[in-house]
Automatic annotation (TrEMBL), chain A:
The gene is gatB. This is Aspartyl/glutamyl-tRNA(Asn/Gln) amidotransferase subunit B. Belongs to the GatB/GatE family. GatB subfamily. NCBIfam families: gatB, PRK05477.1-2, PRK05477.1-4. Gene3D superfamilies: 1.10.10.410, GatB domain, N-terminal subdomain (1.10.150.380). Residues 350-496 form the Asn/Gln amidotransferase domain. Keywords: ATP-binding, Ligase, Nucleotide-binding, Protein biosynthesis, Transferase. GO terms for molecular function: asparaginyl-tRNA synthase (glutamine-hydrolyzing) activity; ATP binding; glutaminyl-tRNA synthase (glutamine-hydrolyzing) activity; transferase activity. SUPFAM superfamilies: GatB/YqeY motif, Glutamine synthetase/guanido kinase. It holds the Pfam family GatB_Yqey. Its EC number is 6.3.5.-. It catalyses: L-glutamyl-tRNA(Gln) + L-glutamine + ATP + H2O = L-glutaminyl-tRNA(Gln) + L-glutamate + ADP + phosphate + H(+); L-aspartyl-tRNA(Asn) + L-glutamine + ATP + H2O = L-asparaginyl-tRNA(Asn) + L-glutamate + ADP + phosphate + 2 H(+).
TrEMBL record, chain B:
This is Aspartyl/glutamyl-tRNA(Asn/Gln) amidotransferase subunit C. Residues 57-73 have a biased composition (Basic and acidic residues). GO terms for molecular function: asparaginyl-tRNA synthase (glutamine-hydrolyzing) activity; ATP binding; glutaminyl-tRNA synthase (glutamine-hydrolyzing) activity; transferase activity. GO terms for biological process: glutaminyl-tRNAGln biosynthesis via transamidation; regulation of translational fidelity; translation. It catalyses: L-glutamyl-tRNA(Gln) + L-glutamine + ATP + H2O = L-glutaminyl-tRNA(Gln) + L-glutamate + ADP + phosphate + H(+); L-aspartyl-tRNA(Asn) + L-glutamine + ATP + H2O = L-asparaginyl-tRNA(Asn) + L-glutamate + ADP + phosphate + 2 H(+). It is an enzyme of class 6 (ligase). InterPro entries: Asp/Glu-ADT_sf_sub_c, GatC.
Amino acid sequence: MTAQTVQQGDLVTVIGLEVHVQLETDTKIFCGCSTDRTDEPNENVCPVCLGLPGALPVLNEAAVEGAVKIGKAIDADIPEETRFHRKNYYYPDLPKNFQITQYDEPICQEGELEVSVEGDRRTVAIERAHLEEDPGSLQHVGGGGGIDSAEYTLVDYNRAGTPLMEIVTAPDFRSPSEVRAFLAKLEEVLEYLGVFDAERDGSLRIDANLSIIPEEEIESGDVTDIGAEALAAANRTEVKNISSHKGAEKALAYEETRQKNAIQRGRAVEQETRHWDESRGITVSMRSKEEEKDYRYFEEADLPPLQVAHWKDEISIPELPSARRERFQDEYGLNEEAASKLTSTKQVADFYEDVASEFDPDLAATWVADNLLGELNYRDMAITDLEGRFEEVTRLVELVAEEEITAKNARETVLRSMLDDEKAPDAIVEDEGLGKTDEDEVQQAVVAAIDENPDAVDDYASGDDGAINFLVGQVMQKTGGSADPGDVNQLLRAELEG
Amino acid sequence: MSDAVSAEEVRHVAELARVDLADDEVDQFTRQFADILEYFETLDEVPEVDREADLTNVMRPDEERDSLDREAALENASETEDGYFKGPNVS
């Protein structure tokens, strides 16, 4: 049975997320070891992050600032007092046999993030976001490299102690594409805040809970308002090992289909943890003999409580994408679509404002939002690929603004060549001979076109206004496309009427 | 001695700590856990004293400090390989 043949109309997908993001700090959360990536294992380690006896953690102020910034951005409560707990589990990625995390008093509580999904604005509730330390990284070696069949384990504690923020959403998602949109939005906000680097490998890790609920069990009749009872009645799976928003969409689409197929064949969905295997594109059961989770949380006595609620007023955060989008509409008179495109990343927005400060905001919007982003997108490039070349793009807009080249040539020849051949705009204009033809040359071409096409001239004279278009085409041909069609039209009319 | 700790709890804790206990060891640990917990009751006899004000907001600036040399970091490991700590397969 393929997914297409399944009648899925009466089943509702419910997804909630736990998103782990690494905070961009210079040092680890509880010690002064560098968080820089290095190829050499166990270079950035010390007694604290190796869990040596007697070592004491001291909290990194920058990690707390990052957490407060995130709290502000998601409009969360920062409680008067928040504290750390030990989460006990026995696995070699944590040398202490416990992870320092936050339990019942997380630093951010009850926030939300607005996200746009296929044109609809949705608000996703964020139940909590808390600080914790990243574990070290394990390599399972030998026996084919599989986690179960490996011969031994190699452990690198460079990552151990990197500050993490775990962001937990309410089960507010109804489709994998919503999850992807949310994660993209979250990344964008975190990057705007300057607390996160999406380019960094492993900086975003996602665990997702997915369950399928028959629509008739939703008492409210509204799929966005599913009661706790219906949620609790459905078995859910937790999908682990997702590391990107694209991966999340794929993993959850797979899991959604798998569960729906099971239900439609009359089989129960087992409540379990599943591992997303990115290379095979499937989720696999992590059925383990492990005992029920029992983390025996208790207060971390080595870290005094935090009282940082007032930091929310003291720490400022940059203008966030949604606010900037609205300002772009007000300040530059852009429509919502253009404003959305132009605020898609901070770098795009900053660049737009640079261009708009020098030239007409509408022209700047057309160039940045439509032409530049369009051509970049077509080439699977991003604005970051233009690092160091923004002045060249600005120069291109200037050439158009000063009417030194036509918009068509600028877009279709110069911009494309800039991206494909990495040439500077003036060099392209020169090489391709795109400089606008001077007026005498255009005038000569107009006269020549009239001389050579008496039939068209007669047609025009007898009232066929369409004939002018034919003549414009002739002039454009003679000038190699560098004349302005509007000007040519007027010159022709002037010549013919005169 | 009272049932401060049950044999079942001892087995559970041993499992969480990946410690394999034989039945007679379970009995032994059950008794010893009870003794240890009872010993904590001694604290009830400590007189009330003024304590120092609670600390809050103890933090350090985000400034890098020297890490251990890798050799020193790995010094106490029973097995290492290419700068990694080496251990048995864990699943």
